[in-house]
Amino acid sequence: MRNDETIKELIIHLSHLGYSKSTQYQVPACIKEFLIQTNKTIVNIKQADILSFLEYLQYRPLMRSEGLLSESMIHHYIYALKLFFSWLEQTSQITSNPISNIKFKKPTYTPRQPLTQQEIKQLFKAAANTKEIATLHLFYSCGLRRTEAVDLNTNDIHFGTQLLYVREGKNSKRRVVPINKSVKKAFEMYLRNRYNPHKEEAFMLNSIGVRMRGDIFNKTLKNIISKSEINHLKDKVSLHHLRHSIATHLLENGMSIEFVREFLGHSNLEATQIYTKVNKKMLNFK
What we know:
Blueprint: H1 3-16, H2 21-38, H3 47-59, H4 71-90, H5 117-126, H6 130-141, H7 146-151, E1 157-158, E2 163-166, E3 175-178, H8 181-193, H9 214-227, H10 239-252, H11 257-264, H12 269-273
Antiparallel strand pairs: 1-2, 2-3
Helix pairs in contact: 1-2, 2-4, 6-8, 6-10, 10-11
């Protein structure tokens, strides 16, 4: 089987197992880059080829900005390779797993600091149009992940009951997110003003009227930050910081951890408990 055919089979395998759409895209993308760099058929790949590729990743520049791959991103490649070769072995496409005896060190993660409520207010104050305001509400007020915002359709928002439905979150987990009156109003204003010549079902559209990609959401947030009083944080704040911040603020305001777990779509409380470790003095509640 040719490498490109194997990639297609891998995508089908991930889909059947219920992996998220982002994983169905990211894992094959990592494997495709590996196979191009290795320039070998799958049955001829050895442990040395994997080690050589990992060394290449240490110096591989980013595609859309300056700099090199982060330790976390390299770990994503390792995860993809482990998943790939395990699948090849299970389906008897290879007789031995070349990655099975390689030991990897765990990546070190810098704790993500939430924004204060005052900093969140500064972002909303800097938002210049209905699209920017809607973007902040999706990731802060609704606590969505990036892929969830990309996949969100207009009919997933029920304005009458003030509920937003995440049809397929992480690990295919569905959930319902309540929205308050100000969020409802902001979303309605965005819908009235957006450019939708193709009658797209997607909620957030880009400048040419098609579904907004994740990188455009990122650029939108960076643009808002650059106009705000916290522009010094432009390179440190991501979309996920907004999700992290709303979780922290809800807990600090006395919301139960179980409610926050459901709000975020976590499968277990352990994932939510990291938000209970914030420094309360950082937060400025009115």
